[in-house]
Design goal:
The chain is of the alpha/beta class. It folds into 2 domains: 6-10 and 33-82 and 153-285, HAD superfamily/HAD-like (Rossmann fold, 3-Layer(aba) Sandwich), CATH 3.40.50.1000; 84-148, Orthogonal Bundle (DNA polymerase, domain 1), CATH 1.10.150. The chain has 11 helices and 6 strands. The chain has helices at residues 50-53, 84-96, 105-111, 116-124, 130-148, 157-166, 179-188, 210-220, 237-246, 260-264, 274-285; strands at residues 71-74, 170-178, 198-201, 230-234, 249-253, 270-271. A 6-stranded parallel β-sheet has the order 3-2-1-4-5-6, sandwiched between helices.
């Protein structure tokens, strides 16, 4: 979810300022790869410390990373982690600080967009001031992380991850959730060993996933993973944009942050279950 969600929101230190010209309509068309600002694409450092990216080695009896088969890049919030209830509760708590009415799940999915400041603008009719942003951001994260610890994996996720790995195929996890929060949570769910790499956000979060995916694939390149055989499975239009930017494919899942109508505007396969997402991803990568 790129969003997705709670953890994908900017930290309290980040500025919410987004040019009005960048506001995305409720049902945006999938942009070309040129639509991602160059400022969002930051090459991976040649000698970045492993701890910063939390590279997870493949299990001894698992597949060799970057094998000839397709590679999956999984989103976390709203995709593998079923946290939409926590997201809605935290969102409404943050808006309540300034007297805004609570959103229903359907309203949230119709309005949500990445980067998150654009979502706030849709609700408020303007971008929040920095003071408002600080209050809303702190409130959101306080409520979200209290609830996220009890959120479970999406139905079938654990089995799908295991089955993909058992077939000798590779997969990784890329999220806009803070890296230091993401890694322990993934480990708590007992699925770290399913991924050849786990990347969370270490910088500002008020940008798209495109730049993060560039760095993620660059880090995986030595293992043989290529964009042309990679499919990103996520729950947000921004996931499809990121995949298009790097020359990969995408499949979008309806159980997270966006309405089906919004997801379909991206022009990629849209599915209602993760099992169908994996099937569609395999077909795309063949």
């Amino acid at each position: 979810m790129t969003a997705s969600s709670a953890p994908d929101r900017a930290s309290a230190s980040a500025s919410p300022s987004v040019p009005a010209s960048d506001v995305v309509p409720a049902s945006p068309s999938l942009p070309t790869t040129d639509a991602v600002p160059a400022s969002d694409v930051v090459p991976a450092p040649e000698h970045a410390p492993a701890a910063a990216r939390d590279l997870v080695p493949a299990p001894e009896q698992g597949p060799a990373p970057g094998s000839a088969g397709p590679h999956l890049v999984w989103d976390w919030n709203g995709t593998l982690l079923h946290d939409i209830d926590a997201v809605i509760a935290a969102t409404n708590a943050s808006f309540a600080e300034f007297g805004f009415a609570p959103l229903t799940l359907e309203e949230y999915r119709d309005l949500y967009v990445v980067p998150v400041p654009k979502f706030y603008e849709r609700i408020m009719g303007r971008l929040p001031t920095e003071a408002e942003w600080l209050v809303m951001d702190e409130t959101f994260h306080r409520h979200y992380w209290a609830a996220a610890e009890t959120a479970g994996l999406t139905d079938g996720a654990r089995e799908l991850l295991h089955d993909w790995q058992r077939q000798g195929l590779s997969q990784s996890l890329l999220s806009l959730a803070p890296h230091d929060r993401l890694v322990p949570l993934v480990r708590t769910h007992g699925i770290s060993e399913r991924f050849v790499r786990v990347d969370g956000r270490t910088g500002p979060s008020h940008t798209s996933k495109a730049g993060h995916l560039v760095r993620h694939l660059q880090a995986l390149a030595p293992t043989g993973v290529t964009a042309s055989r990679t499919v990103l499975i996520g729950d947000a239009v921004d996931d499809a944009r990121a995949a298009a930017h790097v020359g990969a494919r995408a499949v979008l899942y309806t159980g997270g942050s966006h309405s089906r109508a919004s997801l379909e505007s991206a022009g990629v396969p849209v599915v209602d279950t993760l099992a169908d997402a994996v099937l569609a991803a395999r077909e795309l990568a063949e």
